[in-house]
Amino acid sequence: MPMTGSCHCGKITYTLDEDAPANAMACNCSICRRKGYLLHFSTPDKFTLHGSRDDIQAYTFNSHTIRHQFCKTCGCAPFGEGEGPNGPAVMINLRCAADVDLDALAITHFDGASR
Fold this sequence. Notes:
Layout: E1 3-6, E2 13-16, E3 23-27, H1 30-35, E4 39-42, E5 47-50, E6 56-59, E7 66-71, E8 79-84, E9 87-93, E10 106-110
Parallel strand pairs: 3-10
Antiparallel strand pairs: 1-2, 2-5, 4-9, 6-7, 7-8, 8-9
């Protein structure tokens, strides 16, 4: 069943053509640590953005390989886009996904601070 998510105000919504994951990644890099992301990685062909990209602002840092996308109105960051180890990737912030039981997720910790 497709997974959906949004920013707080609802201007940024998406559908991901995948079932909700059982696993998530918690990264300790400077932005993920500050924002508290729990991430799920997918591919752009499974991701559909609803609404206008005009409502989105991107933030990049360090190697600029990931565009952290956030809503210009409410500031929530429901997803990111960029290059993963296997090519183009979409990073879903599971804290902004609907119907995901965050307490049931198996969390893998990634040491992004050392990269």
